[in-house]
Design goal:
Blueprint (H helix, E strand, L loop, with lengths): L6 H9 L14 H8 L13 E4 L2 E4 L1 H47 L1 H4 L8 H5 L1 E7 L3 H11 L5 E8 L7 H4 L6 E5 L21 E6 L2 E2 L2 H13 L5 E2 L2 E13 L13 E5 L2 E5 L20 E5 L1 H7 L1 E2 L1 E2 L3 E5 H10 L2 H10 L3 H12 L6 E2 L2 H4 L3 E2 L12 H15 L9 E2 L31 H14 L3 H21 L7 H6 L7
Parallel strand pairs: 3-4, 3-6, 4-5, 8-16
Antiparallel strand pairs: 1-2, 6-15, 7-17, 8-15, 9-12, 9-14, 10-11, 13-18
Length: 506
């Protein structure tokens, strides 16, 4: 107690900066204490106050500033640590989910991914094998065989014959050793990809085609030499796109966006916004992610829809090049529900093959032949058309949605632009060529004489004016369609009207 202290100590305590005076009400008189403790020459507020007065000037206490900075820094550091922990936990969960999904996909596609494409030989760089799918269209088939047998790049023409009757004599007695009749006893569109052991293909390059489509030999070579450059890719002439509907399904396509707008086209990507230039000549791959409410349902896009959007994601094997191994794998490794659906519905085998190859090439779209080659198609008339059925659109919508799900393409199927800014007639489609090097491929850098001749011809065409080159294309189409026109298979011609007894309405 203070009263027990020596007299000198009590005196110092009462005079110096000791305890403040204690009043009867129990409160300390701090002001009295400070006034007695402050030196007479410079009175200032204590260090516990926000403001201090020195030499008559009131300023902010420097210790408060230091304390505030330290406290703010510690608070900011704590917030960053907390956010980092939350982000790390979220990333870990996302990666965990992604790994599980990737593992599941790898397990389901394990038989496909273990396979390696057979490397090309010298002949595979020079020629290809045509496989024509036909059904009760003998006139169209004979005209198609006659034309394609004249092309120097054709090594063999295999006719996939699934009809219950024997091939007619005028087919089996053709005066060419290029034609092989492949007799199938299963009536299914899957059979067009079924290479029988009794009729092996002489080349690895396959031109899969329908019996009612012709193209000039030069146009065919445009697609073929695209394929020899990237043999693991699907190279087509008939580009199409899938369309994403608001309800989440992938279907044929009623969606048309103004791809020629200079405004960026933005779509929702999970919780973030990602903008992709919508200009048709600048647009790169647009990956479709389905972690949103509206990017989940797909439709099949017709040619008109695809052209307006100026981007595509698939191509039809009614006229397309692909590696022979893909045909074998289609028969053995394609998910069975897809295979059975094609067999049952007699439809969608073209969508199945295009999606199947994309699923094995990291979701890439097919490559395309030169645009001038695409535009040289000659369509042979046929009164029976599978696309003319009432439910054709609905069937293909269902195929796109279902096949994309089963092949795990709904989060990795890419779009590519059809036309680009420069050189549109000689260049279109995806420009990201094959980056998958075939094992033991000794012919990767081999350029055959026929390929050099084709390149020289294309270079000469590049030098022509657009109007002059358009005449070249017209001449090629007329030459290709000459015999088909005489046979009455070109619509709106006099021979066609006579063959099908079409009366002129004028």
């Amino acid at each position: 107690m203070v009263k027990d202290l020596p007299q000198t100590s009590r005196r110092r305590t009462s005079r110096g900066g000791g305890l403040p005076q204690h009043h009867e009400n129990g409160d300390y008189d701090h002001d009295e204490h400070h006034r007695s403790a402050a030196p007479t020459s410079s009175r200032q507020l204590p260090t516990s106050r926000l403001l201090v007065k020195q030499n008559g000037v009131v300023t902010i206490n420097p210790r408060f500033i230091t304390s505030f900075v330290v406290f703010g820094g510690m608070l900011l550091l704590g917030v960053h640590v907390y956010l980092f922990q939350q982000l790390k936990a979220s990333s870990t969960a996302t990666v965990s989910f992604s790994d599980q999904r990737q593992l599941q996909t790898q397990q389901q596609q394990q038989p496909q991914q273990r396979r390696v494409l057979t490397p090309l030989g010298p002949r595979d760089k020079e020629q290809f094998t045509i496989r024509i799918n036909t059904w009760e269209r003998l006139d169209q088939l004979l005209v198609s065989i006659d034309h394609h047998a004249s092309c120097p790049g054709v090594a063999q023409i295999q006719v996939v014959w699934c009809e219950p009757i024997d091939p007619p004599v005028n087919l089996t007695s053709l005066r060419t050793d290029k034609v092989v009749i492949e007799r199938h006893f299963v009536n299914s569109l899957n059979e067009r990809f079924h290479i029988l052991s009794s009729t092996p293909t002489p080349t690895l390059g396959i031109l899969s085609m329908d019996d009612d489509v012709l193209r000039p030999c030069e146009a065919i070579d445009s697609g073929f030499f695209q394929w020899t450059r990237s043999p693991s890719r699907f190279v087509g002439f008939d580009y199409r796109k899938h369309v994403v509907e608001d309800d989440g399904s992938w279907k044929v396509g009623n969606f048309v966006s103004d791809e020629f707008s200079e405004e960026p086209f933005c779509f929702q990507l999970c919780a973030f916004r990602r903008c992709v230039s919508s200009h048709p000549y600048r647009m790169r791959y647009d990956i479709i992610i389905t972690n949103t409410k509206w990017l989940t349902t797909l439709q099949y896009g017709y040619l008109s829809t695809t052209r307006k959007a100026n981007r595509y994601s698939m191509s039809l094997p009614r006229y397309a090049f692909l590696h022979r191994d893909y045909l074998d794998w289609y028969m053995t490794d394609l998910p069975r529900p897809i295979f059975d659906h094609v067999a049952k519905s007699f439809n969608c085998e073209d969508i199945a093959m295009s999606f199947f190859v994309s699923s094995l090439t990291f979701g890439k779209p097919p490559l395309l032949a030169h645009f001038w080659a695409i535009e040289t198609m000659v369509k042979l008339y046929s009164p029976k058309k599978i696309s003319g059925t009432k439910d054709h659109k609905q069937l293909r919508d269902a195929c796109v949605e279902s096949f994309a799900q089963q092949l795990h393409l709904k989060d990795r199927l890419y779009f590519a632009p059809v036309l680009h800014r420069n050189d549109t007639m000689f260049y279109c489609g995806d420009d990201k060529h094959d980056d998958m090097v075939l094992e033991n491929d000794t012919t990767k850098d081999l350029v055959v004489p026929r390929q050099l001749e084709h390149f020289r011809k294309v270079d000469q065409w590049r030098q022509k004016e657009n109007k002059e080159f358009s005449q070249v294309i017209i001449h090629m189409k007329e030459k290709t369609a000459a015999k088909a026109k005489l046979a009455g298979l070109i619509e709106h011609t006099e021979a066609w009207k006579k063959k099908y007894d079409i009366q002129d309405s004028r």
